[in-house]
Amino acid sequence: MVVTTTSLPLFVLGQGVDPHSERGVDCPGELPPASDPELVARARKAKEALGDRLFVLGHHYQRDEVIQFADVTGDSFKLAREAAARPEAEFIVFCGVHFMAESADILTSDRQKVILPDLAAGCSMADMATFDQVEEAWEVLEDAGIAGVTVPVTYMNSSADIKAFCGRHGGAVCTSSNAKRALDWAFEQGEKVLFLPDQHLGRNTAVLEMGLSLDDCVVYNPHRPNGGLTDEQLRNAKMILWRGHCSVHGRFTAENVDDVRARVPGVNVLVHPECRHEVVTKADYVGSTEYIIKQLEAAPAGSTWAVGTELNLVRRLGAMFPDKTVMFLEKTVCYCSTMNRIDLPHLVRSLESLAAGQVVNQITVDPETTHWAKVALDRMLALP
Ligand code: SF4
């Protein structure tokens, strides 16, 4: 195979031209339009036919062709709460990934049906902690004599049964916005935290926001006996981090930060806390998706930003703030492949099926799991 390092014009997000960023994002070639006009019209018609019976949620990382049909956009937690605040909507179409639709089902009434347009839209991070693995890990902690003083905390980006596990064992859910508050709460309840499933969010919060050291953290590998740790390591640790990560945010490296600083004088580096510790420590600003959006909103005109989060969002922010230069932190394109599974054809199928009286791809969480997951979610909601 011949790989050409192309001379195609490559466009920085927002305005201007930067041949070193955003390879392949925009191209002057003969590409078909992103959205099939016929499908756009069909989606619009089905949505109109459903009226107030339908509420469409769009996660920030979704494609533009899908986002245009969202009644509200946001991060996973905001969207689940928005769904709960719409009891009149019979159908909640969640343009996001599986764990998000589960959370929406947990927080909405039994009368409401939550639909995920493509059932294959999972989350690689959430899949890195299965219920059986976490149960086994808890037994390891029991054998080490520390389960009684350990509080499990799971990131929102986890399956419903992991949230339920945390509810059942005195723990809570957290988001990237409230991880510090959740950990403060957890350390009031116990001496140690088992943090699931994102090691980076756990480590970044513990070390950068709570004053713990890297030596206070150990990484539990579910694929190794005893998590790859000795009982002594487990007993000495304050943070037991699950060995999971986001396949999108985990791609950014410290070299990416050095590279963009060398190429773009005065650039502000803004990253999500799901990025690796060495990336976060080199960045200028760190925060959740909502934080990133607010930071760019408030940024002065003419400022330049390299953003380390999912590409659909970074592109959209570039278009929203044309008076600022917004670029992707890494040179190569990096979409969330599972988020991107929700495309216009899948959305149209969901909407047209609903309009025809047929519910497809409904996500349901069983009552027992719903109960305990809600316990963990409610503990998060009660955080100061
Ligand atoms: S961006 Fe990362 S955490 Fe979010 S859905 Fe994709 S893989 Fe999961």
TrEMBL record:
Relate the protein's function as given in its record.
Answer: Catalyzes the condensation of iminoaspartate with dihydroxyacetone phosphate to form quinolinate.
The record's Gene Ontology cellular component field reads: cytosol
* Residues bound to iminosuccinate: H59, S76, Y155, M156, N157, S176, H272, P273, E274, T289
Keywords per UniProt:
4Fe-4S, Cytoplasm, Iron, Iron-sulfur, Metal-binding, Pyridine nucleotide biosynthesis, Transferase
Gene Ontology molecular function: 4 iron, 4 sulfur cluster binding; metal ion binding; quinolinate synthetase A activity
Its domain of life?
A: Bacteria
- Encoded by which gene? nadA
Q: In which pathway does it act?
A: Cofactor biosynthesis; NAD(+) biosynthesis; quinolinate from iminoaspartate: step 1/1
- Binding of [4Fe-4S] cluster: at which residues? C123, C246, C336
Which family would the database say this protein is a member of?
Answer: Belongs to the quinolinate synthase family. Type 3 subfamily.
Return the SUPFAM superfamilies for the record.
NadA-like
Q: What is its EC number?
A: 2.5.1.72
> What organism is recorded for this protein?
Herbidospora solisilvae
| A GO BP annotation | 'de novo' NAD+ biosynthetic process from L-aspartate
The reaction(s) this protein catalyses: iminosuccinate + dihydroxyacetone phosphate = quinolinate + phosphate + 2 H2O + H(+)
Comment on bound cofactor: Binds 1 [4Fe-4S] cluster per subunit.
Name of protein: Quinolinate synthase
**Cofactor(s) annotated in UniProt:** [4Fe-4S] cluster
Q: Where in the cell is it found?
A: Cytoplasm
